[in-house]
Amino acid sequence: MLFRRALPEDGPHIAALVAAAAPSFGAKHSGAVALVAVDAGALVGWIEGVLDGAYTGPGAPAPPPHGYVLSLVVDAAWRRQGVGTGLLDAFVDEAREVGLAWVFLFPDEGEDVEGRVRFFEQAGFEAVDDPAEQWPAMGMWAQDAR
């Protein structure tokens, strides 16, 4: 399995993954970092995020900038094979390389939010202390700053 930065020619494959797995995904975000998972020449997963985000909730354990995972999509045939975790690890590595201490995300609150929360917990993300939210942000240290 190869994890690399997305290339322009990956666009149609990414769009197909998004259409199949996340049809409600919104517009692209400026300044985003996109990484893809490729196996035997086939694009099987994609992650997009920013490396200049700022979680402003009450539980942010480090000052901004923060890494912020916007989207994670894995082809249905490749789920439960480490692709999503590998993409998250690759994004956290990108955050670490630019000196960020912390990465966060918001699990999609749609159907099976509990399953997504479990997945992110197994990948090393922890719920951020935010008593006002049922499904708060989740975060992970990019640097050993605890």
Automatic annotation (TrEMBL):
Domain of life: Bacteria
Matches recorded under PROSITE patterns: GNAT (PS51186)
Name of this protein: GNAT family N-acetyltransferase
Residues in N-acetyltransferase domain copies: 1-143
InterPro entries, alphabetized: Acyl_CoA_acyltransferase, GNAT_dom
